[in-house]
Structures are given as structure tokens and as C-alpha cells.
Specification:
- The complex is a heterodimer of chains A (about 375) and B (about 500).
- With about 375 residues, chain A is α/β, with parallel strands linked by helices.
- Chain A contains 16 helices and twelve strands.
- Chain B is built from 22 helices and 18 strands.
- The chains are: A alpha/beta (about 375), B alpha/beta (about 500).
- The interface of A and B includes residues 343 and 356 of A.
């Protein structure tokens, strides 16, 4: 889906051309990348290019807009400029919306972004198991409710939110700091593909552009801009996720956070947000209440009620396994020997009632 | 005059025969040693001279040449002293060379002429018997060990002077008695399972590991009792057979850590996690057996497995697969036996705190767990969690009611007997040593169980190897229960002990 006017295309490619220089120009004011990107073309050239002005002018001279459109179309990419009707309307509210939104994946996702309010689920790359669990659960809940989940495809919370959304059968929207076809971090190669298959990978940078330091906070503004609500699951202070929350605040959108343990490093940012008045989120229901009003939309039941196992011993062990930390405690609670308990646990796992936790222990299967 | 005396030295843990040739002729007094001797052997000239003189014997003031044949093999250690001294006696006419014809000897000399113990006396005796010698002279402390070998007369020699007496027919010692302690019950003061309160789950895992010779991983916080439990594994393994005990003693004798008698218990080795690959599998300029060899026929315990150097743990691949270690040294390859059960232990996460106060990030967790991958973990059949026992359980409770090692050992022996009968002719002694092909052949699943395992694989992603591991463990559980055919519960229990591939967990 290519719908981009000449001026916007010029601008998008100019920014990509200047990308390596922008970092030096911003210095420590990384958050202000947005301000710079909003400058008119002439000023942008003058500000960013410095001695490279002639080079940049030569680049613009040589840029063949029609050929670029053909190449984008051939690669199966979407490229919507701010004037395109399909351009996400919420994004236009930014002071410096991306001139062109490049996308890789399912083009119908743009319709979903117009029809349903999206939620940005963001957080630290160094997530705790608690944060991972919550990000997954909410990603999954929102996905199952049909709410597009916007995130940054980073390690930790971002990636987990996408996974949850995918597993809930929802529409993931990843906003990345490089070209939409560039996988960063490399470890998320398969997740990147899954997001493309089920939703969209978006960027203001054209395909094949590598990520830059400044482009991470810059893409945070796009995440905030696309979403009705920005949820920070876990974040240290300061952190990139708080930058996203700031952008959301500036836009007058709802900011929400998940309460964390007060002694935890990665809960400081979120707990501070809560003190400042962000909405406290303890589950998918809370997010839906914030979006649509209390009780208007229910989170679909992700845990299908399932009849327990018929065998009374298996049922006892299943109940005990939810409460007890070790095989021995389960055996004591169920009143049978460890060998018998082990056999029951193996059976329950084989039948899908229990799943194994990382290094030992069992928990009740989600569905 | 020329004389030749036979002695034996260690080549890894095997015996290498060395002929000590001594030539005594007129000329300027000199003492030359050739045949690739190391420093210790060159210094033996001084010990031999002093020992001869202090024993009231004559040190010939002539041109003395000693050759250690075969000349191309490097020789090391002080064990050649006695052979050189006796060779000098024979070559200088102080004893009749014929008297040494079918005798071999080994021993280190002190300056006074007393004999000191050497490493590898048992190996020397085995080598001497194989080479057809009738009699072996060894230092007194080594005699009980060397006498374990039947078919060769072992004489305990206290000193060089006594040996001269013996060769002159003035003294004849009693044949040395083999040091075979009473077999049977584990020593009453040894570690016993009854010492461990609670931990019923880990005890069950240990019993299965012992019964099938399976490698085991214990996961739990520090202080939960992982080391205490692992230490009790040798006591529930079947007592070593005479041949196995001989192998163990031979290895320990070669390493210089033998007790001087036949090993009646299986060894337990627990190297620190700073150990090098060489320390773990053996090697060195003079190749020494590594910890896996010292644990041969017993248990190698690796506490804090993720802290071990990657190279060291990966070096265990060959011994775990083949039950032996090959070490290349120059042109030669040395082989050490290395068939041990590996018990490894680790924490749940780097901070080692209970799950509800753990402060580890998922990245740290993944990194920690990734360190648990590789050839060793691929060969771990059983994994169990070891939780700290609540204080309430630590006090009170009668000692007599707890499972004793002897009772578990009886069950293990019964299970092993079943395995031996089933695996007869394969050269394999227990379920844990079966490879993939043998596992699929020896653990037939009825149509019911096969279908069930197939259905399980929809929910639990079992790799091919993981599938075999579950079958092996299920087979051992059935052996413990005395079942010839696998029951469904055996398979279920085996599933609960499996270790999922870490790659899947980390993803």
C-alpha cells in the first residue's frame, strides 16, 4: 500500500540520509529529536547537514520519487504519508508526525488502528519475571479483546507484550527504530516475522536503514502517538519507557502503570508514575475500563473453564500443586508417597493441566 | 659385568615394563644413567649410593652404566631406585643374577636403605603377572595392595639389607596377604541416607539414579542439602564387584591416593568449580588421571555447575559417552577409565533467593540457564528440586523410621540384577549407559503407551534425545518396581523428572 506525496517522500528520505549526522547534532538532548524532526526542510538541512549541505542537496537532486515508490511496492512495503487517508489519525496530533509511515506486514492493520483504540505496552529491557508475567498476561488479554497492542519490539517487556498479543490472537503493532525490515535486536528475528504475519512493523525510516541512538526516543513518540493509552509495565528511572509516557502526557493521552515492588530497581519508574497520578493497572480489565469506561467492555475469558481430571488422586495433586512449592509439600498435602506424586504430576503435565516453570515447580496451565 | 633387572612403571594407569640394565667395568669411577630418565631418577644415583653403603653393602668404585630400556619411553619417579640398586648388586657380583631371573621389583630407597612406598603397586603386580614373572618384591606398605593380584608371589621388603638377605637365602618372608576388607554392609560410621531428614523427593531421585546409573541434576538454594544428598549416593549403589574394586584401587594407586587396601566402597569425588579441563578429565606433561577417572565406578559431584569453566565441563563429553578418556601426548595416546555417575547441582537463579524475593531479571536468568547447556546437560537423565527443609522437620522424628542406605541399596541391587539379565551380551551394565538405538530396542512400549507418548509430545516438546531419556528412566523405575513391562505410571513419573532443553526455556 503506497500512498505518499512527493514532498513527504522527499522529507522521509532526507531524514534517512541525514540520520548518521543527527546524533552529533542533538548531543545529550536526545529527547528533542522530535523537535528537530519537525523543522521545515530548509531549516532541517541547515541544522543537521552542516558541512554536508551540498551532499544532501545532491542526494535530493538524485532522488527519483517514482523509482522509490516502485521499489517499496516491489518489496511489499506500505508507505503512507501524513496526507494519505489511511494514515493513523491519532498520529497527526503529534507536533512532528513522521512524514511517511513505512510498514511491513498486513496492510489491514491500518484499518484496525483507525477503528479500535490502540494501547502501547512498554517497559524495561531488563525485565523481572514478575514484569514478564504481567506484560504477557495484559498483552494476551488485550489481543484477545481485539485491542491493537503497540510496542517497540525490544527485549524484555516490549517483546513479551507482543508475544502475549500474538498468543491472544490479537493485532500487534511494532514501532521500530530502524527500517521496518531490519531486525533489531537480532534475537527477535522470529518474533519480528510473527508480528509481520499478524500485524505491522512500522517505522519513519525507510527499509534497510540501521538503527541510531536518537531514533529510539524518536520512535517512542510514534508509539505514544498511535495509542489512546500508554501502559508502562516496568521501568527504571530514568528510562526510555518514561520518555514514551512523557510524550503521551504531552499529547493529553492516558498514562498508566503497573505497580511494582518498592524495593525493585525496575519498579521505580512505574511507581513514580503512579505517585504522579497515572492509572494503576492490575490486569487487562483495568486497561479496558480506562479505554472504554468502566464495565463497557469485558476482557474475554482467556482461561477457558475446564473440567478437572476425573481421578480423585489427580484432582488432589492438581489442587496441591497450585499451592505448594515442592514435590514433597505436594505429596504431604495430597497424603501420598513421592513416587506416586511424581507420577501424578507427570500425568497432569502430559494431559495439559499443569505446565513446568523455568527451573522446577509446576503451575496450572493457562487454558 | 652385566646384569638386567625387571621393574614396572605407570603409563597412565597401565603398567609399563622397564628393564634396568647395569654394566660394571673397570675404569675411572663414574655413575651414568641413560634411557630418558627424569630428574627424580637422575637423583636416584645419590640415594642408591648412600642406601647401599648404609646397608653394609658395597658400592663398586668402578665405571657404572645404567640403562632403562625401552630407551625411547620417558621415565619418571623414584620407583626405579630399588631396581637400580639390585642391578648394581648383581652386576658387581654381590648377588647371583640367576636369582633375579623370574622376579620383578619396584620401590623407592631412603638414604638408610629402608624402602618407601611407591604409586601404582597394584598396577605393577598386574603387569608383572601378565609378563609372566613369578615373584614381585615391593616395599612393605605396598605389599597388601600388590597381593590383591592372584597368581604372583608378592614379598614385602622392609629394606635393601633384608632384600640382600633374602637373595642370599638367609631370610624368607611370608607371602604378603591381600588387603580385602570384609565386604557387605557399608561402614556404620559412613554417610547414611537415614542422616537426612525430609528430602523424600530427592531421595527417590537418588534411588532411581543409583538403580539405573543415571546422571542427576539437583536444583535448589544453598544449604538445602544437595551436597549431603550426593555424598550418600555411593552408599546406595551396589557394592563394587571384585573386578570393579580392583579397577578403582588401580586408578587410585596410580594417582597416589589409595588407602593401601582394596576399595570396598565406590569413590565420591567433588572437585571445586575452579578446576581446569585438565584437572577434570586428566592430562599434563606426565599424564595424570583427572577427577572423572578418580570417580571411575563411583560418583562425580559437580556443585555449582554453572560456575565451572565451560571448557572443563565440555571436556566431559567423551568420558560421558564412552566411559573412558583418551589423552594425546606427543606420539602416544593414553587411555584412562572414566565411567562414573555425574551428579550436578545448581541454584534456581544467580541470586539464589526464594522465588518470591528473587531480584534477578529475565536476562540474568536466561544467561544463567544458558550456562547449563552443552554435552553434559544433554546427558542428564533426571532433574529434581531440593528445597530447604523447614526447621520444624529438622528437629524431632525418630531416626529409626527414616530410610536406611542399606535398604535402598538392596532395592538398587535387585533392579540392577534385572538390568544385567536384560542387557546381557550388549557389554552394558545399566539402563543409564544405553544409547538411543539400544534404548528403543530394549524399552518396548505397548501400543497404548506409544500412543500416549505421542500425544504427550503435542504438549511437551521432547527432543529425540529427551524422548530416549524419558524411556530410560521409565525403564529403571519399572526395574525398581520389579515390572518386566512398563506401566503407565512409570512413564508418568519419568516425565516428571525430565530436563527440558534450556534453549526452549530461554526463548
Amino acid at each position: 500500500m503506497i500512498d505518499s506525496c512527493h514532498a513527504c517522500l522527499r522529507r522521509a528520505f532526507l531524514i534517512a540520509h541525514l540520520a548518521p549526522r543527527i546524533a552529533g547534532l542533538l548531543g545529550s538532548r536526545e529527547r528533542k529529536a522530535a523537535g528537530l524532526l519537525g523543522l521545515p526542510e530548509g531549516e532541517l538541512l541547515a541544522a543537521a547537514a552542516g558541512r554536508g549541505v551540498e551532499q544532501a542537496l545532491a542526494f535530493l537532486e538524485a532522488l527519483d520519487a517514482d523509482r522509490e515508490r516502485e521499489r517499496l511496492a516491489a518489496g511489499g512495503f506500505a508507505a503512507l504519508c501524513t496526507h494519505a487517508p489511511a494514515y493513523p489519525p491519532l498520529l497527526r496530533e503529534l507536533t512532528d508526525p513522521p512524514a511517511i509511515l513505512f510498514g511491513a506486514g498486513r496492510a489491514e492493520t491500518f484499518d484496525a488502528l483507525r477503528e479500535e483504540p490502540a494501547v502501547a505496552v512498554v517497559g524495561t529491557r531488563r525485565a523481572s519475571p514478575y514484569g514478564t508475567e504481567v506484560a504477557y498476561a495484559i498483552g494476551r488479554g488485550l489481543g484477545a479483546s481485539g485491542v491493537p497492542v503497540v510496542s517497540g519490539l525490544a527485549l524484555g517487556i516490549d517483546g513479551t507484550a507482543h508475544r502475549g498479543c500474538l498468543d491472544g490472537g490479537g493485532t500487534p503493532v511494532a514501532v521500530v527504530a530502524c527500517g521496518p525490515d531490519v531486525v533489531y535486536p537480532r534475537r527477535h528475528r522470529s518474533l519480528h516475522q510473527r508480528v509481520r504475519d499478524a500485524g505491522l512493523v512500522l517505522s519513519e525510516l525507510p527499509p534497510r536503514t540501521e538503527p541510531y541512538r536518537w531514533s529510539f526516543p524518536a520512535r517512542n513518540r510514534i508509539m505514544a502517538g498511535l495509542s489512546r493509552l500508554t501502559l508502562v509495565v516496568e521501568a527504571a528511572d530514568p528510562s526510555g519507557s518514561l520518555i514514551t509516557a512523557d510524550f503521551a502526557k504531552d499529547l493529553g493521552r492516558c498514562v498508566a502503570a503497573v505497580p511494582g515492588r518498592v524495593t525493585s530497581h525496575v519498579a521505580q519508574g512505574t511507581n513514580n508514575l503512579l505517585k504522579e497520578g497515572a492509572a494503576a493497572i492490575t490486569g487487562t480489565e483495568d486497561v479496558l475500563d480506562e479505554l472504554f469506561g468502566v464495565g463497557v467492555r469485558q476482557a474475554p475469558q482467556t482461561r477457558a473453564p475446564r473440567a478437572g481430571p476425573g481421578d480423585p488422586l489427580l484432582r488432589t495433586v492438581l489442587e496441591a500443586a497450585e499451592r505448594c512449592p515442592s514435590v514433597e509439600a505436594i505429596a504431604r498435602a495430597a497424603g501420598c508417597g513421592v513416587a506416586q506424586t511424581r507420577a501424578a504430576l507427570g500425568r497432569l503435565e502430559a494431559d495439559g493441566y499443569l505446565v513446568r516453570r523455568d527451573l522446577g515447580g509446576w503451575e496450572r496451565a493457562a487454558c | 659385568m652385566l646384569a638386567a633387572v625387571a621393574t614396572f612403571t605407570l603409563d597412565g594407569v597401565r603398567a609399563q615394563e622397564v628393564t634396568v640394565e647395569v654394566d660394571v667395568r673397570r675404569g675411572l669411577p663414574a655413575f651414568t644413567l641413560v634411557g630418558l630418565p627424569d630428574r627424580a631418577i637422575r637423583e636416584s644415583r645419590e640415594r642408591v649410593r648412600a642406601a647401599l653403603l648404609n646397608s653394609g653393602l658395597e658400592f663398586p668404585q668402578k665405571r657404572l652404566t645404567v640403562n632403562l630400556a625401552p630407551a625411547e619411553v620417558r621415565k619418571a619417579g623414584p620407583g626405579f631406585d630399588l631396581a637400580i640398586a639390585v642391578g648394581l648388586l648383581a652386576a658387581s657380583g654381590q648377588v647371583m643374577p640367576e636369582q633375579l631371573e623370574d622376579c620383578a621389583l619396584a620401590g623407592e630407597l631412603s638414604l638408610s636403605g629402608e624402602l618407601r612406598a611407591v604409586r601404582g603397586a597394584l598396577t605393577a603386580a598386574l603387569g608383572a603377572r601378565r609378563a609372566g614373572y613369578r615373584r614381585l618384591f615391593v616395599p612393605e606398605p605396598n605389599a597388601p595392595e600388590a597381593a590383591l593380584v592372584e597368581g604372583i608371589e608378592v614379598s614385602a621388603i622392609p629394606s635393601l639389607a633384608r632384600l640382600a638377605d633374602l637373595l642370599h637365602g638367609r631370610w624368607s618372608p611370608e607371602p604378603a596377604r591381600p588387603a580385602v576388607p570384609d565386604p557387605g554392609e557399608p561402614p556404620p560410621d559412613g554417610p547414611d541416607l537415614a542422616d537426612v531428614r525430609g528430602q523424600e523427593d530427592a531421595k527417590r531421585a537418588l534411588e532411581i539414579a543409583a538403580a539405573g546409573g543415571h546422571n542427576l541434576l539437583m536444583i535448589g538454594p544453598p544449604g538445602a542439602g544437595k551436597t549431603m544428598l550426593a555424598r550418600r549416593l555411593p552408599g546406595i549403589l551396589p557394592p563394587p564387584s571384585f573386578e570393579e574394586a580392583l579397577e578403582v584401587t588401580q586408578v587410585h594407586s596410580a594417582a597416589g591416593i589409595a588407602s593401601g587396601q582394596l576399595a570396598t566402597e565406590r569413590p565420591f569425588r567433588a572437585p571445586h568449580h575452579t578446576i581446569s579441563a585438565q584437572g577434570l578429565v586428566g592430562g599434563g606433561v606426565r599424564p595424570m588421571p583427572g577427577e572423572i577417572t578418580l570417580a571411575h565406578r563411583g560418583v562425580l559431584f559437580l556443585d555449582e555447575l554453572p560456575e565451572f569453566a565451560r571448557a572443563a565441563v565440555d571436556a566431559l563429553r567423551q568420558p560421558l559417552e564412552e566411559g573412558r578418556v583418551e589423552i594425546m601426548r606427543g606420539q602416544r595416546t593414553l587411555e584412562f577409565p572414566a565411567n562414573a555417575i555425574v551428579v550436578a547441582a545448581c541454584n534456581r537463579c544467580p541470586c539464589a533467593r526464594p522465588p518470591d524475593s528473587c531480584s534477578c531479571t529475565t536476562i540474568e536468568l536466561a544467561r544463567y540457564q544458558r550456562r547449563l547447556s552443552g554435552p553434559l546437560v544433554d546427558r542428564i537423565d533426571l532433574v529434581c528440586q531440593v528445597e530447604a527443609v523447614p526447621t520444624v522437620q529438622l528437629v524431632g522424628g525418630p531416626h529409626e523410621l527414616r530410610t536406611r542406605s542399606a535398604d535402598v541399596r538392596a532395592r538398587v541391587v535387585a533392579a540392577r540384577t534385572r538390568q544385567l539379565a536384560r542387557l546381557a551380551g550388549t557389554g552394558i551394565l545399566c539402563n543409564g549407559d544405553m544409547d538411543g538405538r539400544l534404548t528403543r530396542r530394549e524399552v518396548p512400549l505397548g501400543a497404548n503407551l506409544a500412543a500416549r507418548l505421542l500425544a504427550v509430545r503435542d504438549r511437551i516438546p521432547l527432543s529425540g534425545r529427551g524422548h530416549d531419556r524419558v524411556l530410560r528412566v521409565a525403564r529403571t523405575i519399572a526395574d525398581l518396581e520389579g515390572r518386566e513391562l512398563l506401566a503407565e505410571s512409570d512413564l508418568d513419573e519419568a516425565l516428571s523428572y525430565r530436563l527440558d532443553s534450556w534453549e526452549r526455556i530461554a526463548a
